[in-house]
Write a structure and sequence with these properties.
Layout (H helix, E strand, L loop, with lengths): L1 H10 E2 L4 E2 L14 E5 L1 H18 L3 E5 H7 L8 E6 L5 H12 L3 E6 L5 H4 L3 E4 L12 H21 L4 H22 L2 H11 L4 E6 L3 H16 L2 E6 L16 E6 L5 H13 L3 E6 L4 H4 L5 E4 L8 H20 L16
Parallel strand pairs: 3-4, 3-5, 5-6, 6-7, 8-9, 8-10, 10-11, 11-12
Antiparallel strand pairs: 1-2
The structure holds 1-O-phosphono-beta-D-fructopyranose.
Length: about 350
């Protein structure tokens, strides 16, 4: 809650309750396209941003992992803006992608947690996350603060493009300012999530399902579990389950379903039922009214506070990160220094 609050504080003017990003040497209203490039967790933040920016700001967004982008060398449209997201600001693939985009005349924006990093130095505009030092190797609060900055950016582009009405902007700002309070409420589920972790620690495979804004959060949940507990996990778009992963499901596979009560909720809930009908052990994370009833179908539910759809991905990240943490602690793996991983990947 504190670092999300700090990040909001940097970008929301408390007197006017409006978002104010640093001045930029260009206007998004002139941008033909936005290209977002990042690695790992930061890439998933980019996928959430794609939803926000395309939907609320009407700007087409491409998102790519830096390790592919830098070798694919895609043609970049004149007048494009390229956005690089990196906690450390030193990830080599992301830096190389930035240099390529620059050589193609893109305006360069970066979101970093370390202001004096190489990626920040080589950008036209830097938007800082205020996550504080990330002690663990796996990004956690860096991700939720990246989402916070990206939410502010989406609103700003929507304003510049004239696609976001004043009252819509006010509603989003209001929802954002409430996130730290709601994040604190989610932390109260710690004991319950710790118990759920016992059930996952013995699994060989874990599936995470989500739709829309919940899909990148499903991937982030799976990555966190892989990184710190070494359990194989996959994040899938819930609607893709029938195209393959459903074959994996039996009593031994826990399925974490990210299901905010948004316009896609009914479809996600029906995927949850399909999984449960095949014997999957479903953990259903939702704010839906009547969650207890769904609890008859799911093995367990985690009830989150009801929030505006826009901010839900920030909040739904927290229980999946907590789950990975508790599984890792239970298994006795090193949560802060997982094997084979480096904090910033500079090779
Ligand atoms: C990217 C990243 C992290 C991941 C791991 C390795 O780093 O893939 O998302 O958790 O620590 O590096 P960054 O570019 O965001 O610093």
């Amino acid at each position: 809650p504190a670092v999300i609050g700090d990040t909001l504080h940097a970008f929301i003017n408390p007197a006017t309750q409006t978002i104010k990003l640093p001045d930029m040497p260009f206007s998004f209203a002139d941008a033909t396209r936005l290209t977002i490039v990042a690695c790992g967790t930061s890439y998933y933040a980019g996928l959430v941003a794609k939803h926000w920016i395309e939907r609320y700001a009407g700007l087409g967004v491409d998102v790519d992992v830096a390790s592919e982008f830098r070798y694919r060398c895609p043609p970049l449209a004149k007048g494009g803006v390229a956005l690089f997201i990196s906690q450390s600001g030193e990830t080599l693939d992301t830096l190389a992608a930035l240099r390529y985009a620059k050589s193609k005349g893109q305006k360069i924006v970066s979101i970093v947690n370390v202001a004096e990093s190489t990626i920040a130095r080589e950008s036209d505009v830097v938007l800082q996350t205020y996550a504080g030092p990330e002690i663990g190797v796996a990004s956690t609060k860096a991700f939720t603060t990246q989402l916070t900055v990206l939410a502010c950016l989406a609103v700003t582009i929507g304003r510049e493009n004239g696609t976001l009405a004043k009252d819509e902007e006010a509603a989003i700002v209001n929802a954002l300012t409430e996130v730290p309070k709601h994040a604190a409420e989610v932390l109260h589920h710690d004991e319950a999530i710790k118990k759920l972790a016992l059930d996952i620690a013995d699994a060989r495979d874990v599936l995470y399902l989500g739709r829309g804004l919940g899909y990148p959060i499903a991937m982030e949940g799976a990555l966190k579990l892989k990184e710190i507990s070494y359990i194989h996990a996959e994040g899938y778009a819930a609607g893709e389950m029938k195209h393959g992963p459903i074959a994996l499901i039996d009593q031994s596979v826990p399925i974490i379903v990210i299901a905010p009560s948004d316009e896609l909720f009914e479809k996600t809930a029906s995927n949850m039922q399909e999984a449960a009908a095949r014997g999957g052990r479903v953990i259903f994370i939702s704010d839906a009214p009547g969650l207890a009833k769904l609890g008859d179908i799911a093995s367990a539910t985690v009830e989150l506070p009801k929030v505006a759809d826009f901010v839900a991905p920030i909040l739904y990240t927290i229980p999946v990160q907590m789950l990975a943490y508790h599984v890792a602690v239970h298994k006795g793996t090193d949560v802060d220094q997982p094997r084979n991983l480096a904090k910033s990947v500079t090779v």
